[in-house]
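This is your field. Have a critical look at the following sequence-structure pair:

***
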Amino acid sequence: MKLQGYLLVFLLAGILSFPATAHTEQDELLIGLIPEMNVFKQKERFQPLADYLSEKTGAKIKLTIFSKYGGIVERFKSLKLDGAFFGSFTGATAIKELGVEPLARPVNPDGSSTYHGYIFVRKDSGIKNISNMKGKRMAFVDKATTAGYIFPMAYFKENGINNIDRYFKEYYFTGSHDAAIYAVLDKKADIGAAKHSVYDRVKRSDPRVEKELVILAESPKVPSNGLCVRKDLNKAIKEKLKKALLNIDKDPKGKVALEKFGALRFIVTTASDYQPVFDLMKRAEIETKK
């Protein structure tokens, strides 16, 4: 009996000392969203996808929308996020500064898994080229966006505009891509910059885009907004997330979520896919930390 008692104490000690988190998975994941559209449209677009991923992974997916694009590294840390649907510039920054791991990115309705930036004006503005832009009003999105700032800055520099403070009468940041489009539509700006996927989305809902705007320049293609997760996220939950996204188009419930999200399917994405972003930054003479 004494020997059995010692064995019981030994076994209990072993159980109590075993790391509790060795094989456990999180029951809740906090995923960040960049503010590419207004908060209500973002929520409407992403919530069905979050609900679907919650069902497939067994972890409750909670969404939080960044108030702005800038300071993405600090916000990822301070909010203790498990992952985020980053844009191309914010994704490149997070990969470089945080070591986040890209999992998958969506394929757009047009069949592409990338997006590009547009510089656009009103058809009745009289602006046909870069020289016509002098003394006009420019609407950017945010300094931490590829389509809404990095690309237009590269475009301006390559066309001899090294100081936008002196070249434009006024320039400002709208905070979201759809807001930049409406700034030009509503004549609050003469020139705008935005990503093509949001431009196309607004065009489908507002016929004024097709009727009143014209695109003057287009950027190289960069990865569409993909899900990246923190490097130390539980491996099992990471694999469940990736598998759920890559197989979402094969599931009837997944197809419903995809339709509301505005994508055909998801494909694998890697850190190397973000090289075009770094190339654009070099052309624009912009560093990630700035």
About this structure: The chain has two domains: 28-113+223-284, 117-219.
